[in-house]
Design a protein that fits this description.
This protein is α/β, with parallel strands linked by helices. The chain contains 14 helices and 17 strands. The relative contact order is 0.14.
């Protein structure tokens, strides 16, 4: 998604430099009006929960798979951190190869195992395989892993543009599905057999679930917890996250490439002399979900990018046991540091606080650009 977005925005910057930028942007639609999404019928929610029940084990095994280069940070870390804190399943973060997993647009981590190591340890397969956005979206090892796990009875969950990875396997052909608004048309063009469902944060159909944009992994994961361990457990975890509701309601029409989005991104990218690198101090026990949301948001402004700072150069173990590899040593950092309180809150609150801080620093339209990329319903320019 970010790669394709970069192509379009690069063309926009060229258009501006040639004097045609205003005409190009004028041809785009205005920002869509916000609408109150319709409530989800109770029978639809019940059917989704029934379809997401653990297919094999009472305590299920969850594999979150990514490529070593360019796996989306929040797609990868949010399900991991939420499921680990819920303690209703055994959760493993996987990579295609040995070595660090470079997440985009920020953070580096160590996976728990490679795909090959996981398959050797668990020949009967996982109960759930969570597929984040990644580039490329047709990595042969990932596609083979998803197909083989599905054949062994695993439920596949494509998070955000991870749906396009699942689509590459052919598993979405003939099924109902959704994905991030930016990747929807390319996915349907490549796989016209997919039956797109609008106005849903997540869609479940015959052993395969898909979600809309990045922040949809939070309601999707809470729904998975509810399917595994019941409503009371999901409510407990939701309170810890600061999430009041997690059903599938969504206004798909509120997310599209529009004139304010394009003008803001072009303006932010064109002002290269104002680009910033911001340090985020991390320490053992850091909440990986809140950190991922904050780092992801600051790195999607087209004005700034986030790097992690720590006392040493070794891995920093997060709240849920993930090993985060700091980008820089804190002692040698001379740039600006973001206040740790920003990602020291409950994750949903950390996201709102970060977007408020972005609006204060760069203006509300930049906060909207970030929220649009995250497919987060809240707006800052109303």
């Amino acid at each position: 998604m970010r790669k394709r977005l970069g192509v379009w925005l690069g063309l926009g910057v060229l258009a501006l430099s040639a004097g045609g930028g205003l005409a190009w942007c004028a041809s785009l639609p205005p920002a869509p009006a916000s609408a109150q999404p319709a409530a989800i019928p109770a029978e639809e929610t019940a059917a989704a929960l029934a379809a997401l029940k653990p297919p094999k084990r009472a305590r299920p095994l969850v594999a979150i798979v990514g490529v070593n280069d360019h796996t989306e940070v929040t797609d990868y870390l949010m399900p991991y951190g939420i499921l680990r804190r819920a303690d209703v399943a055994d959760v493993m973060a996987l990579s295609t190869e040995a070595g660090p997993v470079n997440l985009y647009p920020a953070l580096r981590v160590e996976a728990d195992a490679t795909i090959a190591e996981f398959e050797a340890r668990h020949p009967d397969g996982a109960d759930y395989v969570i597929v984040p956005a990644m580039m490329p979206d047709d990595d042969p090892k990932v596609l083979d892993f998803i197909r083989s796990q599905a054949a062994r009875g695993a439920t596949i969950v494509g998070v955000c543009v991870g749906a396009t990875v699942v689509a590459e396997t052919g598993l979405l052909d003939g099924r109902r599905a959704t994905t991030h608004w930016w990747s929807l048309r390319p996915m349907l063009k490549a796989r016209p057999e997919i039956r797109y469902v609008a106005d849903r944060r997540y869609v479940v159909d015959r052993g395969v679930a898909t979600t809309t944009g990045i922040t949809a992994s939070m309601p999707m994961t809470l729904t998975l917890i509810e399917a595994i361990a019941g409503r009371a457990k999901a409510e407990e975890v939701a309170r810890e996250l600061g999430v009041p509701a997690w059903d599938a309601r969504h206004d798909s029409g509120a997310f599209r490439f529009n004139r304010p989005f394009a003008l803001t991104v072009i303006g932010n990218r064109a002002a290269f002399w104002r680009q910033e690198t911001l340090g985020m101090e991390i320490a053992p026990g850091v909440d990986e979900v809140a950190l991922a949301l904050a780092a992801d948001s600051w790195s999607r402004t087209f004005r700034s990018r986030a790097v992690t700072l720590a006392e040493g150069t070794g891995p920093v173990v997060s709240r849920s046991g993930l090993r985060i590899l700091p980008d820089r040593a804190s002692a040698g950092w001379t740039g600006e540091r973001l206040p740790p309180a920003m990602w020291g809150r409950r994750p949903a609150e950390a996201l709102d606080a970060t977007l408020e801080a972005i609006a204060d620093r760069y203006g509300p339209r930049t906060a909207d650009v970030v929220a649009m990329q995250l497919e987060y319903p809240k707006r800052w320019t109303e």
